[in-house]
Design brief:
heterodimer; A: mainly alpha; 0% strand; B: two-stranded antiparallel ribbon; 12 helices; 9 strands
């Protein structure tokens, strides 16, 4: 249970408002064109995201039951920089889209992965995985001005660089206690420096995950995995639904043509596409096709859209509330946004 | 003050029961949208597998929650989920129920929604250049029209027509889509719209083709404009007048004679209705903006397709 009381109260108020607005919409404006559009977009986002979140929750449950803390502690390099660099590539091994990555990341942190490695993984995994890079290549096929290989390389490269820079900055600006809503008293891989401490931790480890569950070992393990998955799903899923409400509202009431006028200059074009990325809340497998269809925009602005979207959108921002403290929630999007803008503008200057 | 409770009393584990009920509702929702095909209004067809997978995962969660539905009084039911012992009165406090409350919102909207996919309002909001100036007249290059109306039209999906439009200019084509019209639009013009989808309605992009309605429909709507009071009530008055043996004015007689065609022309121009437009693909202009046009010979209203997206 989150111990950020102020955040919990704010979320509770937001949820009550959403429930009241939804009932109001159904009672008073059900057939209005904007209401139908809002309902369609909201339900679409939820129906599409929840299965991936469920998958992420089960992955998280599997991590909880089958991955021992000591294994993570041994695998994580002692050097912070090396640890962050490797965490950026973890998405290739444990690919999860941005709907499920927060759930998985939460569990990895509880298992002792340093929080800044988890942040790096969370930012990089939705971009640096085979499915997303494959769909990016497919979306930009047959475009001589924007060769698929170039777009894929730039998207992967920019995503990786931003993820590790943000991870390293978080490593030095924050502590585990100041970053996370819940901090495990036994610490993480980088707070334990000696084998003796590792041994002590193992000896005094919390009760086994299967304790208290009767039955054959396989059933007990399934029970444990599913129970943890349920808890994670309920905890994080509520933020996803809140995020979907905001995203659907923005898509319904903000016309895209209003944003086009802002995008006249290169910097304006990049900024406009970044705003779109945050507003649209697209999944990283689909955003490449949407970006490719924006023929009037430059490669740099499309890359800004493709890199920022999986790292930061309304839905993700609200899901962060289940894991991070307010200061980090504010800092993460700012750092990511600045990083994406700088790199995208650099691409514009070099192209 | 807490009540003293009997030793052998058991309580329903309310938080777990509420969670179980919520998960069960979601299981029904996933299975329901898959079996009825309703998910096609929101997602691409291939994502039916997602709904099936999600239903399975939710079922696994439900099965795992079937243990511990009744608890002994030593562990207060309300606090068991938090792993704490607390007082009896917490059992009924709302704070154990509200985490699942938000999960009911999409279920409520899904059950009550009459959505059949994204509508023309959403298309207009997503068009980067807007629907065009209010009242702008659609001009087409009629030199490419055939001498006589064609008998057959090549059925194309709107994205096929849009992508290779230049290959179809001057040729007879037919396409289906949603009708968009607005008050400022001159009579005889409307937009035919459809969405292409990658994952879900959130990423759907609108395709728009302008339609110049068939000449006879344009003429009927111009001769008997709705704004001037022509409609079913006027027809009833004319019928009553004729039945009473009174002489009809030429315009009234014309309206009575052509009412069926007039009504068909009007019906098909209802916003968000679906229509099949058969005509000649032409290059046109809306004001100064070049646009793709179907010069229609036939426009017929059709029911919405099962899968509204391309």
């Amino acid at each position: 249970m989150a111990n950020g009381t102020g955040q919990s109260k704010g979320i509770f108020v937001a949820e009550v408002i959403v429930v009241i607005l939804s009932v109001g919409l159904l009672l008073f404006a059900r057939k209005a064109p904007y209401a139908i559009a809002f309902q369609t977009i909201f339900i679409a986002i939820v129906l599409e995201a929840l299965p991936f979140m469920l998958l992420g929750a089960f992955v998280s449950g599997l991590v909880e039951v089958f991955v021992r803390k000591e294994r993570i502690w041994k695998l994580v390099p002692r050097n912070k920089v090396l640890a962050v660099l490797s965490a950026g590539l973890l998405g290739m091994v444990l690919p999860v889209c941005e709907c499920g990555v927060v759930v998985v990341m939460r569990r990895l942190v509880k298992k002792g992965l340093p929080f800044y490695c988890a942040i790096t993984y969370m930012l990089a995994a939705p971009i640096l995985n085979v499915v997303v890079l494959g769909s990016t290549a497919l979306a930009f096929q047959g475009k001589p001005d924007e060769p698929a290989r170039l777009v894929v390389s730039l998207r992967a490269g920019m995503g990786y660089v931003i993820a590790i820079v943000v991870g390293l900055v978080c490593a030095y600006l924050f502590t585990r206690q100041s970053a996370l809503l819940e901090s495990e008293p036994e610490g993480d891989a980088h707070s334990l420096h000696t084998d003796a401490q590792l041994h002590d931790q193992h000896a005094h480890a919390p009760a086994a995950q299967l304790e208290g569950i009767a039955g054959p070992s396989l059933i007990r393990k399934y029970q444990a995995v599913a129970t943890h998955a349920t808890v994670d799903f309920i905890d994080v899923g509520r933020f996803l639904i809140l995020g979907a409400v905001v995203a659907a509202g923005l898509q319904t009431f903000v016309p895209r043509s209003a944003l086009v006028s802002v995008g006249a200059s290169p910097a304006g074009s990049i900024s406009m596409m970044m705003v779109l990325a945050v507003m649209l809340n697209l999944c990283s497998e689909a955003d490449a096709f949407v970006a490719a269809s924006f023929v009037q925009f430059t490669l740099a602005s499309k890359l800004a859209f493709l890199v920022l979207g999986p790292m930061f959108d309304i839905k993700l921002l609200l899901m962060y509330l289940s894991v991070f403290r307010k200061k980090l929630i504010i800092t993460l999007p700012i750092m990511t946004t600045i990083g994406v803008f700088i790199l995208a503008y650099l691409v514009h200057l070099l192209s | 003050m807490d009540r003293k409770l009997p030793e052998n009393l058991h309580f329903p584990n309310w938080p777990k029961l509420v969670k179980l009920a919520t998960l069960a509702l979601w299981l029904v929702a996933f299975v329901g949208v898959l079996v009825t095909g309703r998910y096609l209004n929101f997602l691409r067809p291939a994502f039916g597998a997602l709904m099936g997978g999600a239903a399975l995962l939710v079922l696994l969660m439900i099965i795992s929650q079937l243990r511990g539905l009744r608890v002994k009084h030593e562990h207060d039911a309300g606090c068991l989920e938090m792993g704490q012992l607390c007082s009896y009165k917490h059992r009924l406090q709302g704070r154990f129920f509200y985490p699942v409350l938000i999960f009911l919102v999409p279920l409520l909207l899904l059950a009550a929604s009459s959505s059949q996919g994204l509508n023309t309002y959403a298309a207009i909001q997503r068009m980067m250049t807007g629907p065009g100036e209010a009242g702008a007249e659609l001009t087409v290059d009629e030199s490419q029209l055939p001498a006589t109306a064609p008998d057959t039209f090549r059925e194309l999906r709107l994205n096929e027509l849009d992508t290779n439009f230049n290959n179809w200019v001057g040729k007879p084509v037919a396409a289906i889509g949603m009708v968009y019209t607005r008050q400022e639009m001159p009579e005889g013009q409307f937009l035919l719209m459809r969405f292409t989808i990658t994952c879900c309605a959130a990423d759907a992009q609108p395709l728009v083709i302008h339609v110049r309605a068939p000449a006879h429909q344009r003429e009927l709507l111009a001769r008997f404009p709705v704004d001037a009071g022509w409609g079913p009530e006027r027809l009833a008055e004319i019928d009553a007048k004729k039945a009473a043996g009174q002489e009809l004015a030429p315009l009234e007689a014309g309206f009575q004679e052509n009412y069926a065609d007039w009504e068909a022309a009007l019906e098909v121009r209802t916003k968000d209705s679906w229509a099949r437009v058969s005509g000649i693909a032409l290059n046109g202009a809306l004001g100064l903006r070049p646009v793709k046009v179907i010069y229609a010979y036939q426009v017929e209203q059709i029911p919405p397709p099962r899968n509204p997206y391309l």
